[in-house]
Specification:
The protein is mostly beta strands and 260 residues long. Helix content is 10%, strand content 47%. The protein is built from two helices and 19 strands. It has helices at 143-154, 242-256; strands at residues 3-6, 16-21, 25-26, 31-39, 45-61, 66-77, 82-84, 89-97, 106-107, 110-111, 117-125, 128-131, 135-136, 138-139, 158-166, 178-185, 195-202, 206-213, 227-233. Helix 1 (143-154) crosses helix 2.
């Protein structure tokens, strides 16, 4: 599958760049592959650098307001400087690793509203830099993540929303400057519970699964009984009944608070 995006032309008679992704469906820890094609203009030009990266649009909470910010969270330089001949085509293949913490943008083949993650291309020429539009990618859950998501669905939870927020979840292996929250509406059997928020923070070995009920805006109340963080191995998650595990925790918390 090819996904094409044409960058703006670099001045009258200058080069133009097209990025082609061979596959837009990826998973954390995987690789997005593609090719950057630079089309020479009417004159020779010195290309000082070419790079590709991954960018996410995240929410930032200020003192009095919230706003969106584009954050680039990985970048790879493709080769060195070279001279692009007039009317020549210079093609550069690439493989861009997807960080393990990358938020998922798809659940069960359905896109999550508000998730904007994609590949950016940057061409430096004659001391100027041209950045292209975002080439979106679809980030699907890893098997261990899918097991947790499937457990929520099995228990009757319904997806509400998802967002990416700038900040850090303390006590986790987080390295990126932002994290994802996936919110679910609670089913009727959990009387008194409105929703549960879920975050994944993974590396190449395991992931921290962070759950919170009755969350206060902007705070992870780690010391309360409505917060739970546990570790799931990326290769040994199959031995646990995750629906049973989650139901037991929710029932315990609900019983203490007389919710259920």
């Amino acid at each position: 599958m090819a996904f094409r995006k044409l960058l703006a032309s670099l001045g009258a008679g200058g080069a133009s760049v097209e990025t082609v992704l061979t596959e837009v469906n990826v998973v954390p820890g995987g690789v997005v592959q593609g090719e950057v094609r630079i089309q020479g203009g009417s004159v020779n030009q010195d290309i000082e650098g070419l790079s590709v990266g991954l960018q996410a649009r995240v929410e930032v909470e200020g003192a009095d307001s919230e706003y969106k910010q584009d954050i680039e969270f990985t970048r790879v330089r493709l080769g060195g400087a070279f001279e692009l001949q007039a009317n020549a085509v210079h093609a550069v293949p690439f493989g861009l690793e997807i960080p393990w913490e990358t938020p998922v943008t798809m659940i069960d083949g359905q896109a999550l509203r508000g998730m904007h993650i994609g590949v950016t291309t940057e061409l430096a020429i004659a001391r100027a830099v041209d950045s292209g539009d975002l080439d979106p990618i679809n980030v699907h859950p890893m098997p261990a993540q899918k097991a947790i998501l499937d457990a929520f669905i099995q228990l009757g939870f319904h997806f509400k929303s998802a967002d990416m927020e700038r900040g850090h979840i303390r006590g986790t292996r987080q390295r990126l400057p932002f994290y994802q929250e996936i919110e679910f509406y609670a089913p009727s059997q959990y009387r008194g519970l409105n929703e549960v928020e879920l975050s994944f923070v993974a590396d190449e070995h395991a992931m921290d699964v962070v759950l919170e009920m009755d969350k206060k805006p902007g705070l992870f109340s780690e010391g309360s009984d409505t917060y739970r963080s546990f570790q799931v191995g990326l290769h040994d998650w199959q031995g646990t009944d995750w629906a049973g595990y989650l139901n037991q925790w929710l029932s315990e918390v609900g019983g203490k608070r007389n919710w259920f």
